[in-house]
Design brief:
The chain is α+β, with helices and mostly antiparallel strands and 219 residues long. It folds into 2 domains: 50-127, Beta-grasp domain (Ubiquitin-like (UB roll), Roll), CATH 3.10.20; 129-219, DNA polymerase, domain 1, CATH 1.10.150. It contains 6 helices and 5 strands; from the N terminus they run αββαβββαααα. A 5-stranded mixed sheet has the order 2-1-5-3-4, with helices on both faces. Helix 3 (136-143) packs across helix 6.
């Protein structure tokens, strides 16, 4: 024989009042724990130092920098070394204005922390050429008017040089068809590989012409 049902009724007002009391209690407990530094009752200890001294070789010159651990390579170049050719555009790795070379590979310097590059070799637009002796890619950009406002141009040039190096090394892209054949610097290959560099002025056809000329000269 089953026991008789127990009469039970919960009212909406009672439920809301109970829930609110539980929530307030949890908030108060969290604040008390934060103020006391956790269960032990002592303030939380720092995990480590806030800054680090890092040594980089930038454009052939060794540089020793003490930077906040959160400092990006881009900000280290611009703010600490005053190499302002590398531009800050989106600061999210989407526009390519901050492109430079690290150990021969192009990277978005806004997405990389300076402290990650101890002992690395960094090359920026300032290390490529001078007004009296332009790098071939710089000269081609001038000849084909591959820039308008010029803001994205340093990243475009650094990326363009890396594109030709990648093609020469046989590194495939998403548009590479035959992976067993020699990769050519076609329009499609260049466009695909340069797609991470945005030109808001729209000088893409001139940029393509400049890169194509350098590719043909190097062939």
């Amino acid at each position: 024989m089953s026991p008789p049902p127990i009469p039970f009724e919960i009212r909406r007002r009672t439920l809301m009042a109970t829930s609110g009391a539980v929530a307030l209690g949890a908030i108060a407990a969290g604040r008390a724990s934060a103020q006391s530094g956790g269960e032990g009752g002592s303030p939380a200890a720092a995990v480590g130092p806030d800054s680090t001294t890092v040594t980089l070789t930038v454009n052939g010159t060794e540089q020793e920098l003490t930077v906040d651990n959160r400092t990006t390579l881009l900000d280290a170049l611009r703010e600490h070394l005053e190499l302002t050719g590398t531009k800050k555009g989106c600061d999210h790795g989407q526009c390519g204005a901050c492109t430079c070379s690290v150990n021969g590979q192009r990277i978005n310097s806004c997405l990389s922390l300076a402290v990650m590059h101890e002992g690395d070799e960094v090359e920026t637009i300032e290390g490529l050429g001078t007004p009296e002796a332009l790098d071939p890619m710089q000269a081609a950009f001038v000849e084909h008017d591959g820039f308008q406002c010029g803001y994205c141009t340093p990243g475009q040039i650094c990326s363009a040089r890396a594109v030709l190096d990648e093609i020469a090394a046989g590194v495939p892209s998403h548009v590479t068809g035959d992976l067993t054949a020699r990769i050519e610097a076609t329009d499609d290959e260049i466009r695909e590989r340069m797609s991470g560099n945005i030109c808001r002025c729209g000088a893409y056809s001139n940029i393509l012409a400049a890169i194509t000329q350098v590719a043909e000269d190097q062939a």
